[in-house]
TrEMBL record:
It comes from Thauera aminoaromatica. This is Uncharacterized protein. The lineage of its organism: Bacteria, Pseudomonadati, Pseudomonadota, Betaproteobacteria, Rhodocyclales. It comes from the Bacteria.
Amino acid sequence: MGKGIKMRSAQDRHGNPYSVEALQAMHDRQQTIPDLICDHPPCGCDLRFVPRYQQNRANRIEPIDVPAYIGLTSDSEHITGCRYDAPGRITAIVAQSDPDFIKALDDGKRELRLLALHNGLGGRSLSGVTPAPGGKATAGAPSGNKTTNFTQTEEKLSSYLRTTADLVALRALCESDALLAAELILRFGTKRIIWSQFFFEQERYDDAWELIKAGDANAYPIALAGIVKSHHAPSPGAKYKSSFLNCRPLYRRTDDPDRLDVFEASIAHPDGKWLASFPVGTEIVMFGVWKFAEAVETQRKNPRDPSRTTTFVTHKLTLQPKFKRQLIEVS
């Protein structure tokens, strides 16, 4: 199915409210789940409850925990104006966006231009030139005197950031890429980007690391979803000034039972109080031009068997947001 927003509440046909936690408790007690409908009047479309489950995936050290949620049935849709109407949200986001950022196409779809966001965030241009302060950089023309605007006015960039934040927050609420992919084509210069190569949930941090490593300095902006694991502030006298927000990592098996791959995603920013405003356990989305670090090996004794040593191969992804809108709480 995977076509709509994952909901946290619903009601039965008698108007009795149910939270996703209450439905999960009923499922655990093997009680019958009532027929559910949307609790936003006057919608009332049919819904289904998807209980929490674990899913085995290739090369994962442990099954992926998929939280419980409430979603649409195969033949239902939220009415226009319902707060869970994802197509309606997309329409509203696009209506408020800059036409230079989201362009209408002849087939009714729209094209989101990641290059505009990339350049506004200070990424390297497709010609290999980093935008200079003031918004201009040499385009590398043979004449030597041609310049191209790679960054936008503050107003335009603010619009691009708002639109991107709204879209990735909506994607994090959805069951899959399908809904946004049906409406929005992603383009980076002349290259079309599929949604699975733009938005990455925790179980795909390894794919994100490989993508960013392959792109290196020319990597385009991507979005990662995660859950806050910890915060770290620099010690007095430390050479670095940034604080860090760290997300729950992905652990991946290797062919060696004593060797594990670890993929970590972190936000680095001088404003530690701002990062701390996202408490441990908060669901977030982070977007921008990420940096990768080459894998680093460390060894630790196996707590279950001190005679064995486990090697952890850590792959780090770090985002240093230029704007605070690049980090969003999912709600």
